[in-house]
Structure formats: structure tokens, C-alpha cells
Amino acid sequence: MTQVLFDLDVLRSFSTGVALGSYARAADKLGRSTSAVSAQLKKLESQAGTPLLRKAGRGLELTDAGHTMLAYAHRLLEINEEAAAAMRGADLEGWVRLGLQEDLGENLLPGVLGRFARAHPRLRIEACVARSAELRERMALGQLDLALIWEVEGAEPLPHTERLVRLPLQWIASAGPEAVEAPWWAERLGAGPRRSKEPLPLVLLGAPCPLREIVTRVLDRAGIPWRHAFTSASLSALWAGTSAGLGLSARTSFGLPRHVRVLDRAGTGLPALPQIALAMACAQAEPAAPVARLAALLREAVRDSVGVPGPGLVRAGGVSAAA
């Protein structure tokens, strides 16, 4: 049986067309004619032995086999990029100093560090996991090369900052069995009979904390009394308090542990919370190659985690039939 060897160039055209929503735009981006890209797609379908796209209205959409092929295309292209980066950076040495907050560290670092270490085996990363105020101070003092920081109103802007994504803040509650029935604080807000007039218990990071100020300000404007039921400098401790049902916390849905959940506000009387932006700050306008590479990996990991389309990422929906 003849072994099938998929062409990385063909896979790149396929994945780019899906990401851009049009193979005509993919041809333009890749510097090829639309007929050349169309021929590549036909070759890929021939090698796969099954259609990868089907007509959907005026456009095209991925078949089940197409979704499978796209996942493998991303993996193969990623491995190819890692190999190329490893060859380019094989002789690089030194440190990259990275700062990020606790919820980001737990969810982004494992995958990103693995890819970075394989590409730059002689480089070391010094990671500082801390709260926003400390990270900003360290950046200002030149103690970090790169940092991921949640932006808040009133904070002094850092130089060379790129906003990656904006996410809405959410009310966070316990995901345990005790959360099935509406607890007393939900009844107090209107989800059930008013049995208590006690203030809403909050589980938040200790002061100073910009998010703490945002939440309490929103509640004050809504005329909802509140109290601090549990505070800590540790995010994992906050999740423990929230999971135990001590009260509500507030955060984005990014990287939530399984024992807590985003609370559906319907019927609770809870006010909506604003959005908050995640930004990447670099110490230099033109960072050194290892810093730039780590920044690219972090950028891709963030956007992939929250489903934001970007280069090499899949958009929801179909693909234009113009191929």
C-alpha cells in the first residue's frame, strides 16, 4: 500500500482558507493564484480519499473529514514551525523574564513552556506569577521582559502594550451539589422568596484589588448591599471559598476550575459586570528574538483559549466558495 505523505504547503493553503473564510483571500495572502490554491485543495481531497468541503448556500463548509483534517493540519504546521524555530534559535542562550497572573499561569504556561523549551533548549524562563500591581511595578523597574496583565481603568498604562482580547466579567458561584438549589443570597436578590435581608456575600481578593473595586462599585450603583465573606491574596483560595458556597466571586470565564461555574444572572437580580481587557506588555519596542517568540506563543495560546480568530486559528462559520 502506497504511503500518503501530506504536503505542508497544501495543508497551509487549506488551513489558511478556512481561517480567512475564503480561498480567494487565502490565495492573495499566500501569494498564489486562486486556481493554484483550488488545485491544492483537489490534491488534498484526493490524498484524503474523501471530500473535505461541501456546498452550503453560496459558500462551503467543512465536512466531518474536513474538521479532522484541519486539526491534523494545525498540528503538523505547528510541529514544522517548532522545528524551524529550534534550528533558528539552537544557539541562543540566556534568560527570558516573564510575568503573569495566577489564573493565566495555571492555564497557559504548561503548553507554552513546552513548545518554547523544545524550540530554545538553551534558554531559560524566569516566571513571576503575581498580582497586577506587582507585575506593573516589576515592568516599570525593568525586572521583566514580558508580562500578561489584566487592564483596569485608572491604572498607569505600560509602554509597548498590545491588547489581546476583551472578556466580560462574570459572577462566579459554586458548581457543587449545594449550588443546585437557590441559596439564600439568590433568594435575597429575587430568585426565590425573600427570606433574608442580609447583604450579598462576596469572595474576592484582598485590597488593593482593582477588580474588587469594580464589583463593589457595580453593586453600590444597583442598590444591592454586600459584605466581604472571604478574602485572600491567593486566587486558588478564592476558588476554594467560592466552591464551598461562602458567597459569589467575580472573574472572567478564562481558566475557571471545574468546582466553580459562571452564574446565570436570569432571575437573580444581579447587575451585569463590565468587560476587562487582557494585555501583553513588552519591556522593549523591538524585543530580542527569544522574547518575541515567547510573546507569539502566548498570543496564540490566549486567542486559542478564548476562541478569538487570528492567524492560523479557525473562524466559526463556513468558507467562501471562491476558491
Helix content range of the residues, please?
40-55%
Q: Element order, helices and strands? A: HHHEEHEHEHEEEHEHEHEEEHE
Strand content: 15-25%
Total count of helical runs of at least 4 residues: 10
List keywords for this structure.
323 residues; single chain; 3-stranded antiparallel sheet; 5-stranded mixed sheet; alpha/beta
Question: What does this entry show, briefly?
Answer:
The strands form 4 sheets. The chain has a 5-stranded mixed beta sheet with strand order 4-3-5-12-6, sandwiched between helices. The protein is built from 10 helices and 13 strands.
Give a description of the structure:
This protein has helices at residues 8-20, 23-30, 34-48, 64-88, 102-119, 132-140, 184-189, 210-222, 235-243, 289-306; strands spanning 53-56, 59-62, 94-100, 123-129, 146-151, 161-168, 170-174, 200-205, 226-232, 249-251, 260-262, 275-282, 319-320. The chain is of the alpha/beta class and 323 residues long. α5 (102-119) crosses α10.
SSE map:
Blueprint: H1 8-20, H2 23-30, H3 34-48, E1 53-56, E2 59-62, H4 64-88, E3 94-100, H5 102-119, E4 123-129, H6 132-140, E5 146-151, E6 161-168, E7 170-174, H7 184-189, E8 200-205, H8 210-222, E9 226-232, H9 235-243, E10 249-251, E11 260-262, E12 275-282, H10 289-306, E13 319-320
Parallel strand pairs: 3-4, 3-5, 8-9
Antiparallel strand pairs: 1-2, 2-13, 5-12, 6-12, 7-10, 7-11
Helix pairs in contact: 1-2, 1-3, 1-4, 2-3, 4-5, 5-10
